[in-house]
Design a protein that fits this description.
CATH superfamily of the largest domain: NAD(P)-binding Rossmann-like Domain
Bound molecules: nicotinamide-adenine-dinucleotide
Distance between the termini: 17 Å
Strand order of the largest sheet: 5-6-4-3-7-8-9-10
CATH topology of the largest domain: Rossmann fold
Helix content: 40-55%
CATH class of the largest domain: Alpha Beta
């Protein structure tokens, strides 16, 4: 088994970059909301705002799909929903198996968003014999001994791992051996998989850590802004007090301090990159 190979490289088949593929679900979610409100067309700016993506990036992404919209009209919402769904493989049903039916696995099993997006939970697996036969979200929990037959019977190609980290690699190996080629991993560990297997990792604590970083940066920048504004005010006061001679220097100092204050203010307006999806390659 190869090690460290956890997701495909920068571009996929048909030349669509991985970063574009990662944004397609964001567009689809925004487009689905528009479709539900029976909105027929949408401009790239409106859709970019709704998806939390820069509009130039959106137009570039859609050019990979061969979708350019109509000048003055925008994009046809229904057609784009179909096109993106087809690109993401969502026009077909994907049976999914969830392994580890504890707090998280049970919550995932009951998540209605899977079915509405074409992911059918075909089976729930847990190693705890006390769980075997229990009903969770309308499905019967099966023991890990039944993992392989379940995958074969249901034609499962996507596995969700919600076990403790220590069990995740062994579960992953069994899933792959049984024919699963895509894994969504919630366990806080890096999985090694062979070529041809895609792993996506979800880690909410990493997302929170990224937000904490931005919070810390914003606090630092606000302090920097206050210092720069105070320096600008002091330099302006000094420039007013000096009538001749050093007035030019004081004026320059005031200008520089004001420039620093403006630059600091501009930086504080920047936040986390809304284009980065919460699910990341493992
Ligand atoms: N990614 C995230 O944001 C996120 C959020 C919450 C939890 N987690 C992770 O998800 C995992 C599950 O969390 P939880 O709170 O549901 O834990 P939990 O203890 O409630 O459930 C774990 C379940 O896995 C089962 N299990 C253990 N070993 C197994 C094996 N080899 N095969 C099949 N099933 C097995 C246990 O019997 C149990 O039912 C943990 O690794 C946790 O750290 C991740």
């Amino acid at each position: 088994m190869a090690t460290g190979r956890t997701h495909r490289t920068a571009t996929r088949s048909r030349g669509i970059p991985e970063a574009t593929v990662a944004r397609l679900p964001l567009y689809l979610r925004a487009l689905t909301a528009l479709s539900e409100r029976s909105v027929p067309t949408v401009s790239s700016e409106e859709l970019a705002t709704a998806a939390g993506v820069n509009s130039a990036k959106l137009r570039k992404d859609f050019s990979y799909l061969g979708s350019y919209g109509t000048r003055g009209v925008g994009y046809d919402v229904e057609y784009l929903v179909y096109q993106i769904s087809r690109e993401l493989g969502l026009t077909q049903d994907w049976p999914v198996v969830i392994v580890g039916i504890g707090n998280l696995g049970a919550a995932l099993a009951g998540y209605g968003g899977f079915a509405s997006r074409g992911f059918r939970v075909a089976g729930l697996i847990d190693a705890d014999r006390a769980m075997t036969g229990k009903q969770v979200a309308g499905l019967t929990v099966r023991h890990t001994d039944e993992l392989e037959p379940l995958i074969k019977e249901s034609g499962v190609s996507i596995g969700v791992i919600a076990t403790p980290a220590g069990a995740a690699q062994a579960v992953c190996n069994r899933l792959v051996e049984a024919g699963v080629t895509s894994i969504l991993n919630f366990a806080p560990t890096v999985l090694n998989v062979p070529d041809g297997v895609d792993v996506r990792k979800v880690d909410l604590s990493i997302e929170l850590q990224i937000l904490a970083f931005h919070e810390q940066r914003k606090a630092g920048e606000e302090a920097e802004l206050r210092d720069a504004e105070a320096a600008a005010a002091a330099a302006a006061a000094q420039s007013g007090a000096v009538e001749r001679g050093t007035a030019g220097t004081a004026g320059t100092a005031a200008g520089t301090a004001a420039g620093n204050a403006a630059a600091a203010k501009k930086r504080t307006g920047q936040g986390p990159d809304g284009d980065v999806p919460a699910v990341m390659p493992a």
